[in-house]
Write a structure and sequence with these properties.
705 residues; elongated; coiled coil; Leucine-rich Repeat Variant; 4 domains; mainly alpha
Amino acid sequence: MDQQLEIETDMMETFKKRAPTAVKAIRAFAEKHMKTKDVRLAPTLNKEIWKRGVKHVPHRMRLRLSRKRNDAEDAKEKLYTYVEAVPVAKFKGLQTVTIDEKRNTIIILNMSGVNIDSLFKLPARPNKRKKLDDPDEFLERLRQNQEDEEVSAAKIAKHKDEEEDEDEDMDGRFHGDGLSEEQRKILELVDLAEEAPAAIDLPTMRKMVLKLEKNITKNNQMRSRYPDDPLKFVESEADLDEEIKNMTALSSVPELYPELIQLKAVDSLVSLIQHENTDISIASIELLNELTDEDVVAQSSEEGELGMSAFVKELVEKEVLVVLTQNMARLNEEQAEDRQAVFNTISTVENMISIDPKIAETVVSTTNFMTYLLQRIRPKAFDSNKQYASEMLSILVQSSRPPRLKLGELEGVDIMLQVLSQYKRRDPRDADEYEYMENVFDALCSALAEPEIKKKFIDAEGLELMLLMLKEKNASRMRALKVLNHAMLGKDGKDTCDKFIQVSGLKTIFAVFMKKGIKQLKKTYKQYSETEEDEHVVSIITSLLKNALTIDIRQRLLNKFVEEDFEKIDRLISMYEQYTAKVRIADQEIERQEERRQNRDPDDDDAMDEEERKLDYYLRRLDAGLYTLQFVAYTIASIVDASDEIREVVVKALEKRGSSLQEVALILDEYASNFGDGNTDAAQQQEESVELKRLVQMLNPSLAE
């Protein structure tokens, strides 16, 4: 049997809107230490107390945390720690903090008004997604901000010890004196408050939806009847807010989502986003974010997945994407609640895309969402929403061609280059800003898959900016190399390659190829990957060789391999040796695995057929280094084909390392056999395949078909 651990906070009506902030902070701590997903928020507002007047109405928040009996003691101990960590002096009007061991309940009473924001400041959102900042860090900030905290906590502990019955460990009454009669009555009302159901079934869902609809209707009626007297409809607004929050419990039963569609609840949820009261709108957005959370699907059955898909489809049909995007215009991010609502809006869109990737195209084509994201990443001041906007932009642009073209229409290339230019001579200040920078770089790389974007990139002087970053050797250098790689890929990268050579890019890229400054990069940046840099730089050189069609440009490129006593060729052959060794290790492991497979009982089930197994082995070899080795082999073949002088130097360098052009030809032949990624134009793919086979025959005529 489960025990119930409850946290209750009673707050003045003045701070009613801040109550969710407080509860989220408590909830984050509880989830962290109690390791439970079964956390439900159930706010209630007692009508008896309401009659006394708005200024005297406490807004109660109860958080139920179900745990198995053998975990209850440990959880309660951590909750004690939480209460002791809250500096009593900061509460000012606080009468007492009490702990009811019999009911496993902690009660924080606020009877005269407290700055809830200062006590339970909503932590900045992390990169992903629905989780608050580490509650341990949150508690640490509370401790640092209040010097007399330890004294206050000691007083609470001492007072508790004095009142505790030594013979009955879990018995007794509240362990804090000083409660007024009014406060005791409030506690009695708390005891009488209805508890949310432990489980959600179909009848329960229908009751919840019906109750929500009744509250919506009542609120509309009261607003229509008393449009100029907020006190007349504030009670109905509070009830509506409460029911919206209660609906979050439905996220545990996505298999019942089709019933929400049948009950027309989706229409109501979408309409609530446009409610005149921003707080109601904010609560509705948070509800949608919870209901569409990708974690809900991950933990559900196939029926739950189908329910979620149907729910998301219905949301799209009810134009929730348009409503969410338009609603962001009235949110003021100077306010913590509005700032959180912006985060939840972006999160909801991301959730929906994770359920149905086609929604990425829908949100771009039917709303101004991408326009908003591009504007949101521009301000110099950094915050979590700016980071999330950059991540969402990257997700959209990665999805398909239409969002990438839309980015170009909105001058997104210019905007992203302006954003990235700040990192030309400085590094991001922390890990969050570093991730923000990477998101923008990733979005740019994805966009460069389109010929139209490559042209805009050239016109916006993107090449020049990337080359400056390579020269500065800051954190942005590593991502600038990746951008250049994507900008030059394919036949549609020819103009980029020509422009690259015109702006003296060869000198810079071959300095990277020769690993100049690599020691400092390794020492300074833990994110630096030598393997990744090798892949990008040799891919760039391969693209230059493929696209340098004029005699003048091609000769300038070949001269780079001749200068400085052929040092570039030595480096190239060294890479060939290095990556050949890596692939050989992978081949040996695959051979051992294949031997084990063949020695197994023939009746054993084999999950993969022969073709699937071959593909799996090939992909593993690519990851091990074959991908880079193929580019190295292509570069060797191209320069050997262009110059007898270079051929002689290459042959000697290979022989010195126990290899030959015939072995290079084998690598290139395998590359030709597997050439094409399914995205390349068929005519272009055929043209490149023919060229690869020509180079193979040039290196080793015996491999000719």
